[in-house]
Amino acid sequence: MNYFIHTYGCQMNVHDSEKIAGILQSIGYIECDSVDKADIVVFNTCCIRETAEKKIYGHIGQLKKLKIKNRNLIIVVCGCMSQQDGAVESIKKSYPYVDIVLGTANLEMLKDAVLQVSKHRKKFFNVDFLNTREEDFSISRTSYPNAWVNIAYGCNNFCTYCIVPYVRGREHSRPIRDILKEVKSLLEEGYKEITLLGQNVNSYGHGLETGENFAMLLTEIGKLEETYGKFRLRFMTSHPKDLSDEVINVVSKYPVICNNIHLPVQSGSTEILRRMNRRYTREKYLELISKVRAKMPDVGITTDIMVGFPGETEQDFEDTLDLVRQAKYSSAFCFVYSRRKGTPADKMEDQIPYKVKQSRITRLLACQNEVTKEISAQMVGNTYEVLVEGANFHYQGVMCGRTESGRLVNFKCDSKMIGQFVNVKIDKAKSATLWGSIVTEE
Ligand code: SAH
Ligand code: SF4
Ligand code: F3S
User: Fold this and answer.
1) What lines the ligand 3 site, CB under 6 Å?
2) Is this model's pTM higher than 0.85 or not?
């Protein structure tokens, strides 16, 4: 029996899909490479923007034909989209051939759901927030040499545009003890990079009775190099309002913790930030960047930015462009604001017309592209330590990996080197893409 998983959305979902794969394997399914060969197809969904949602519904729609051909095919919809208000009803109505709908906080029900459907042909719909989520899943990891590790679930920040707090529930952290146990066993298994995941890693510990915080967690993992040897530690996402001096100090102190911070700014205008409920100002954000750069001159800072938030004036947008030039991000994920039902921003009156949003995103992308190009050009001729991560599928014999600061580099080497650290000299830079060659020390 074969399974096929469609994964949409962020790293959180990528990692959840590894858990889904683990559950399916535990009941005898094996992975296949196309939906046509599958006995079970899982859609692990995202609803952060309308475009994501529309695309997924389109893909679910395409399975109708397959289901007519193979009545035993099991179709599962889980993840953030199914957790939205009214989603179960609308799936039942418009996609009646879907067999299982699960939410974001009851994945462990998947096993029973699949057994129920395959044995009794009885559909299974449940999007309850169990909040008993523990890491006792067998995880089928797919991202060697990197391993994802959840440190916190959910979000309490309620940025006014964002659906995540509604579909992922309240923030809760795993105890340091559990996280350390998982990290140690991953290092023992040979993983070379650990990426800690949370919607806001900087508020880690919130709600734990033991008073644990993110700096303490980083310190504990930072100390593991002594016992386990060289590895890399990354984390995402950092909310600027909670990035403490203590965390900055710990990141700069331990060599295993990469000098690479994903610090979503969203907007460069204090007024828009206020309306977004981000709880920092443009000035505070820029101060934070200076502080990080003062401690770690080689740091790579990346960000998320949105254009066309309700009420965004031309001046607000210009402020964003100006901040992008000052912050010198090595890269930025740029989005057009998308109205999400149930969020406060959806009810704001001064929504921005489509055309204005389109013109702003084009200008923003061009602006960031200039910044990236400049940073890339400065890297040419320098040598960086790179972890060989995997093949570049466009070019035979070319592997890729990242510098400590998070820049992706392409270079020729044997695929046997995946998981090893090498020194790569940057030969040329094409905007975001860097090309280099391995240098061996005499
Ligand atoms: N927890 C993370 C981000 C999660 S969502 C954080 O706080 O930064 C990833 C990114 O999607 C956000 O940073 C934001 O830039 C974007 N995003 C979220 N809601 C959006 C919306 N309604 N429209 C457009 N982009 C959105
Ligand atoms: Fe969404 Fe804000 Fe929470 Fe990030 S911090 S997930 S943007 S509500
Ligand atoms: Fe991630 Fe999308 Fe959910 S961005 S948290 S998968 S809404």
Assistant:
1) 9-10, 12-13, 46-48, 80, 163-164, 167-168
2) yes
